[in-house]
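INPUT
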Amino acid sequence: MSHFGRSGPPDIRDTYSLLVLNITFRTTADDLFPLFDKYGKVVDIFIPRDRRTGDSRGFAFVRYKYADEAQKAVEKLDGRTVDGREIMVQFAKYGPNAEPIHKGRIIEIFPKTRGRSRSRSPRPRYRDDYRDRDYRRRSRSRSRGRYDRDRYRGKERDYRRRSKSRSGSPDYHRGRGRGRYDDEHRRSRSRSFESASPVRRSPSPRRSPSPRRTPSRDESPERRSRDERSPSPRSVSPRGQRVGSRSPSPRNSDAEE
DNA sequence: GTTGAGCGTT
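OUTPUT
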């Protein structure tokens, strides 16, 4: 009985959706259920979570059966400290279909399935739209993360409070990257070649982090040949220095190789 | 292991 939203939206014909923000990432529906259920009849609780990691996004949706109970819960649970974090309870402004709702109450869910198709307006692509926005917002949060927090600490709260307006485009310079998958992937690849890592200051000869190495190619004479022909800066040094530093005996060097 | 603006799924 704790599986809320696991079977999709049960029945939200006459339910009021409450948006719970500022909740911890570890808070689950089970933790919110007893809290909200105490103030009213909770028909469903849904907590959006990431599709890749599966972690909670930090907010939850609580559906009440009656508006009066929902309102009460908002006033009672709004500002309550849950799991050590102050949560913010308020009526949902948008419905599951990205449609504006009235005080958390869903006006109509599926206008199309209601009898004949009176509306000739085609249904917009909710999935595609929400996917795009979701990924973008997520990456932004993850990207900024603690870097800004350490800089602004408590001031950033005031800053974002004023600039919280949805009208403002939080897209600073996210780039045309569709997501962070490609971005991270690209950077990772680049790192392999060039030392883009600040911590990586040692020119580790191990350029093959993958344990899976192809013996055929690795042991191939071509590879070795190239390696010798394209030696490191140190090896590229004149023979006198290299030989004198590495092998005091030129004879040994010859025998070794 | 981390994070913190905001509005949702089988």
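end of record. Chain A is about 40% helix and 10% strand.
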